[in-house]
Amino acid sequence: MRNILFVFILCISFADIVSAQTMHSIIFANMEEQGREVDRTAEMRNMTEFCNMVASSLGYSHDLRRHSGREFTSVMLEREIASLNVNDDDIVLFYYDGHGCNWDDDDWPHMALLDKQYWATTAYNKLKAVSKRAKLLLCIASCCNMDSEGQRRASNNYALSTIDRDKVRKLFTGFRGRRSIITSASIRGQYSWSWTGGITPGSQYTISLRKVIKDAVSGASNTELTWESILKATEKQTLAYSEGKQLPQFKIEENAGTSAITRTTVSTKQIASSADIENVWVEHNMMLNGVKCMVIHVRFKTHYMNEQGGRLVAFFDSPKGVGLRDTNGRYRTVDGNVCVGSDFGSHYEHSLFEDLKLVMPNSEIHPKQGTKTYYIRAFVYDFKQGKYIANSDFISFNMQ
Q1: In angstroms, what CA-CA distances link 301 with 80, 234, 321, 359?
Q2: CB burial of residue 245 (10 Å; 0-12, 13-18, 19+)
Q3: Among residues 192, 168, 173, 181, which one has the least CA distance to residue 39?
Q4: What percent of the chain has pLDDT over 70?
Q5: pLDDT tens readout for residues 237-257
Q6: How high does pLDDT run on average in the chain?
Q7: Per-residue pLDDT for 266 more than 60?
Q8: At residue 204, does pLDDT exceed 60?
Q9: Strand, helix or coil at 206?
Q10: pTM to 2 decimals?
Q11: Helix or strand or coil: residue 208?
């Protein structure tokens, strides 16, 4: 009887070891943004179903973490990354669905979280640092990669009965060594397109990615079960859906360490960051999306800024040194003065921003009755130091 009990305990222990792997899924989708509720909610639902399908097919437990609304912040993202407990042969998937943009010296997009712009490469490197033991890391940024519908729709149905579990295992775990992958919905200089209504709302890129994987692991296509083939096929599908307007990008690292995609060559922790504003010029009465705007152009340099980046801000005065009062709470400082700003960032010790544009609708300037002459002054704010580190001279302009 004692021997039988011993064998039984061994069997239980062995079963625990076999099923010990975990798929860690972190999904950030900004479902509450006005005008984008439908497609972002669809992406949250579809990515959740997709990750559940993968974990179930692999026989992995599923550590699913989803965030939207007030939790759609860099603070929450970093908290989730820091709390990951990744063991041997686990899988880590991070998915972002929201707005994005691009600054001057990185081909990968910056995710527009509620509290600040956040490098996709920063998220990737932080994920790699805690995922050294993972079999596969996927970092997916479904957002625009720009400096600044009606197509054929795809199916989002992923019935488990159509999935070949062996093919899922081959794609996600059936390779030697370890893989880390970063991918984004478009190359630099392109938007990321979404269907915001209809029967299949959601990101055209992410719908393409899920479709290519689903077709490959269900036998509906001849796509080779390698990540390079999957992502190349996703490029073609995304181009088809977007009518050639959007080309995704990806990078695959094998047995990767934690230092990829970093261009800073010396430690800048002890060096105070600084900036120089070289030129400011203004275009008036520019029509942008049907709105008459002022476009403020700023050329400036930064030195030793870290990945937190900074913000370029233009303040409006009348007279000089006296802030113009805001009247509707839209383009304003915390003190209630008119301003407009844009976040920026750099991976380099020394960076030149040739022409960072700030767009201010004419209707948001709020001129004072009887006053024609107003002033703009540009400032550079450094998030690391928590203060302004450079400013321009005053630029005057007239309003009738």
Answers
A1: 34, 38, 24, 20
A2: middle
A3: 192
A4: 86
A5: 998 888 888 999 999 998 754
A6: 85
A7: no
A8: yes
A9: helix
A10: 0.70
A11: helix
Are the C-beta atoms of 68 and 32 separated by less than 8 Å? Answer: yes
Q: Which two tokens stand for residue 255?
A: 């047995």
State the Cα–Cα distance between residues 66 and 86, nearest whole angstrom: 18
DSSP 83-104: H----TT-EEEEEEES-EE--T
**Location of structure tokens 């509906």:** 220
H-run or E-run covering 114: none
In the block, tokens 């490469």 appear at: 121
Residues 310 and 390 sit within 8 Å (Cβ to Cβ): no
DSSP summary character for residue 327: S
Token digits of residue 91: 């899988």
Distance CA 171, CA 330 (A): 48
pLDDT tens column, 346-367: 777 788 888 889 999 999 988 8
Reported in sequence order, the residue ranges of 88-228 that DSSP labels E, i.e. its strands, are: 91-97, 100-101, 110-112, 117-119, 136-142, 179-184, 194-195, 202-203
Single-letter amino acid code for the residue at 18:
V
